[in-house]
Amino acid sequence: MIRLEHVSKVYKTSSRPALDNVSVEIAKGEFVFLIGPSGSGKSTFLRLLLREEVPSKGRVYVSNFDVAKMSRRRVPRLRQSIGCVFQDFRLLTAKTVAENVAFALEVIGKPRNTIVKVVPEVLQLVGLDGKADRMPHELSGGEQQRVAIARAFVNRPLVLLADEPTGNLDPDTSQDIMLLLERINRTGTTVLMATHDHSIVDSMRRRVVELDNGRIIRDDARGVYGVGR
Amino acid sequence: MRTSFVFSEVVTGLRRNVTMTIAMVLTTAISLFLFGVGLLVVNMVGKMQDDYLGQLEVAVMLTNDISSNDKDCTQEPCRGLRTDLETMSGVDTVVFENREKGYERFQKIFEAQPELVKLARPEAIPAMFRVKLEDPERSDVIVQEFNGKAGVKNVDDQSQDLDRLFGFLNGVRDAALALALLQAAAALLLISNTIQVSAFTRRTEVGIMRLVGATRWYTQLPFLIEAVVAGVIGAIAAIGLLVVTKVFLLNRVLGELFSSNIIPEVSMVEILFLAPVLVGVAILISALTGYVTLRLYVRL
Lengths: 229, 300
Fold this sequence. Notes:
The complex is a heterodimer of chains A (about 230) and B (about 300). Chain A has about 230 residues and is of the alpha/beta class. Chain A has seven helices and ten strands. Chain A has helices at about 40-50, 75-80, 95-105, 110-125, 140-155, 170-185, 200-205; strands at about 1-10, 20-25, 30-35, 55-60, 65, 80-85, 160-165, 190-195, 205-210, 215-220. In chain A, helix 6 links the parallel strand 7 (about 160-165) and strand 8 (about 190-195). In chain A, helix 3 (about 95-105) runs parallel beside helix 5 (about 140-155). Chain A starts with a strand and ends in a 9-residue tail after the last strand. The mean pLDDT of chain A is about 95. With about 300 residues, chain B is α+β, with helices and mostly antiparallel strands. In chain B, about 75% of the residues lie in helices and about 10% in strands. Chain B contains twelve helices and four strands. A four-stranded antiparallel β-sheet of chain B has the order 2-3-1-4. In chain B, helix 8 (about 160-200) packs antiparallel against helix 10 (about 215-255), helix 8 crosses helix 12 (about 270-295) and helix 10 (about 215-255) packs antiparallel against helix 12 (about 270-295).
């Protein structure tokens, strides 16, 4: 589903590569943690998959897309097959919960009858049924992240990228969010989650890819965050 | 679906930026108004040239001697002058008008001012040849050829007076178009700035749109339409201004000149014909500015 072949990325403003000869393959339906200290290249990794950046060297594949080589015109197609969740939720404050989720479909031109059908479904899936008409500021942090996950998942992406999705949440709420991500993973969606959260990584016992200074220093099939950290 | 979404985005965008939108509409309106004035003057000058040049004559005034003694132009040098005029290339018709006829015409022209008619004696009116040319703009040839000839007092070229009027009108036209250009520059900058501000205030939305895979066209269209809507409102305001100017200014100040056909009237029909031109120009310019701004200055 995701494959990086000898990928390096050097930003113009820095002499040190953000990613240095990274090769990794993630199969369809996997749940993978991407860990490492700040500046280790996690964000660059995710941005390459979304084609927010192009690699300086190497090739990036997501599903059938040759991400580094594809034309600009096809980028929206790629992004429609990837869902994204962030630490800061990125909800539209002037829109209701349902409108926030619907927005993701409206802007890619989905017909209205599809939207009115799938939005309540996905809200139920993330456990927000009954809160469709709330505004984001009326919700708790955990609930806001659920809205963001609903928005990322509503178009049934092949891949869900989560960049520190629990970074702003307390441990209990974080656990709930992880359960939700697991449920989404069980539908066959590949989940790639960048995180600093030891306890979550340790308790989930999923595949762990660790980056340091732009290199993969560890890739454990059922890993923990790290010994002695 | 698509249209209603884009439309609601446009309305929100314009409302959120309402002061900027108003500034944008006003500058566009003034610019297009001046442009419209320029076009109307061009039209007017064209019509006047058609109207007047057809009637233009060169008057070859004859000396007092001929005027008093040769009523039918049968003697020299009058007869010679007539032949010369008639055989000159480019001359259409030559009419001899003796002093009595000239006096009659004078009385008729100044009917409304009897004291002037009373003052003037027939002896003050010279006999003359009224010469029509095939090309009225080539009157200077006659002036050169006949000025100072024996029997000729002077040559009066009406087209020179008209040139002064056209010069004035062309000046008005040029000034209006120059100001329109300046205002257009201001309007362009405002449109560009408004789009940038608008894109900045909506960066979260736009960021999400990009992330979920909205096409570039879909992300940018609302901004583009925003600019075009403001442009069209500006054009409509400009047309309104033209109508108001016609009804409350031109009709009052120049009403008599219009009704006596001295100056061709600026009709509502003309303004109506101008309306789609102004709207079209507004759409073209705002869309183009919007597109260029989005391409160059806004990373969406």
